Amino acid sequence: MAMILALDQGTTSSRAILFDHAGGVAAVAQREFPQIFPKPGWVEHDAREIWASQVAVAIEALARAQVSARDIAAIGITNQRETTVVWDRATGEPICHAIVWQDRRTAEACDRLKAAGHEPLVRDRTGLVIDAYFSGTKLAWILDNVDGARARAAEGRLAFGTIDSWLVWKLTGGHVHVTDVSNASRTMLFNIHTLAWDEDLLRMLDVPASLLPRCAPRATCTAGWPAVSASTGSRWPASRATSRRPCSARCA
């Protein structure tokens, strides 16, 4: 019987919930992962730990429901929205710890943007105030403070995403780099009127467009999730496991 797998990636734990055809809960699994506090006001996660915990609870939920990966018709993702991950496109490895939405290290940079008169532009294009809460200044901080990051980004070698993009990238074996408008709208880089990444905001924060995921109204991926399938010992349908097509949703 086909089931829906919901992945709930939160700030302190990852959960997986399996829903049956009637909408009933067939199984639930949850696992906490470490929080990292390198300095006062700084909050980080190891994106690899997030991925490992999310795969583990998915496998656990499948085992509890006594089903295999082939029984999953679709996967839905809910996530901690503003947490920022940057990874190498070739290796799929993060270049540093993820900066969590709670992190305040870019508060002074936000104050400088306000003093420079950028807040009306940001508010008009994004509906947000300038604040360290959002992903844009976190991404700029990574580019400016991780050795070689800005040069690698300029060469198109790096990818940025919030947690949804990171999970989809890993689930599809690096074939799909995508987000949806609800996550993109929390980056301080996304124009809520045109439903596209905003060139003026990218220039304001000196963020190369090549870093960004494709934004779609729905992130319905059909490229498969080989990590979970392999771990459960089941054979994921070939049409999904080998597909290199991007998400089936239309770009905004």
Query: Percent range for helical residues?
Result: 25-40%
Secondary-structure element order, N to C: EEEEHEEEHHHHEHEHEEHEHH
Count of helix runs: 10
- Report the uncertain regions: 219-252
Keywords for this structure?
disordered C terminus, 252 residues, two-stranded antiparallel sheet, globular, 10 helices, single chain, alpha+beta, 12 strands
Could you please describe the fold and organization of this structure?
There is one protein chain. With 252 residues, this protein is of the alpha+beta class. The protein is 33% helix and 21% strand. It has helices at 47-65, 107-115, 119-126, 135-145, 149-154, 163-171, 181-184, 199-205, 226-232, 238-241; strands spanning 3-9, 13-19, 25-32, 44-45, 72-79, 85-88, 98-99, 158-161, 178-180, 190-191, 196-197, 214-216. The strands form five sheets. A four-stranded mixed sheet has the order 3-2-1-5. The protein has a two-stranded antiparallel sheet with strand order 4-7. Strand 2 and strand 3 (25-32) form a beta hairpin. Helix 1 crosses helix 9. The protein is globular and about 60 Å long. Residues 219-252 have low confidence and may be disordered.
